[in-house]
Amino acid sequence: MPTALDPRPLTGEPVSLDLLNTRWNREGVVQDLLTDTEGLAVWLAANGLGLPADDATLRHALQARDALRAVVDGSLEEGAGRVDAVLAHGRVRMTLTAQGPGESVEFDDPSWGPAWLAARDFLQLLDTAPDRIRRCAHDSCILHFFDTSRNGTRRWCSMAACGNRAKASRHYARTKES
């Protein structure tokens, strides 16, 4: 059975932020892609994770999403233990192959795979550029992105959507005053 189309307004972010972006606002109503295994299948496919979309994987993905939200929208102190609890279900094993050094990922249970990969990705983003992990600056938007702009000043999840709405609001406020 083919996977349904991804309804989210922002995709293509690193897997940890893409997991956070499985919740979004549409006209003031919070939407959630991960309400069932069909939505999980859409998210797994969007991230190239060829793992089964079953109830256990969904439960673990939701646990990882909540843990990441606690860190990104709260504080490292607040959410670190929750992210660590997800990371406890997998590990990276260093290997040496004919092609040279490598690594393989191992999980307690394969259903932890997507959750663990998202948590690990978040640690890599923190290590790379923690100041570039951002929440959209629009008041009603709950999406997150990794700022890859040259000067690191991106403010909106999408200039076409949230950025344009903010510009229109400012313009309306200016014209209303005059």
Characterise the protein shown here.
The protein is of the alpha+beta class. Helices cover 47% and strands 17% of the residues. The chain has six helices and six strands. The strands form three sheets. It has a two-stranded antiparallel ribbon. Strand 5 (133-135) and strand 6 form a beta hairpin. Helix 3 (55-74) runs antiparallel to helix 4. The longest helix is centred in the middle third of the chain and has 20 residues, at 55-74. The model has no long low-confidence stretch (mean pLDDT 91).
Write the layout of secondary structure elements.
Elements: H1 15-20, E1 23-26, E2 29-32, H2 37-46, H3 55-74, H4 76-87, E3 90-97, E4 100-107, H5 113-128, E5 133-135, E6 144-146, H6 159-177
Antiparallel strand pairs: 1-2, 3-4, 5-6
What is this entry, summarized?
With 178 residues, the protein is an alpha+beta fold. It has six helices and six strands, in the order αββαααββαββα.
Shape: globular
Order of helices and strands: HEEHHHEEHEEH
The percentage helix is 40-55%
Name the beta content range.
Answer: 15-25%
What kind of assembly state do the chains in view correspond to? single chain
Structural class: alpha+beta
Strand order of the largest sheet: 1-2
Low-confidence stretches: none
Total helices: the number is 6
**What's the mean pLDDT score?**
91
Could you tell me the radius of gyration in angstroms? 18 Å
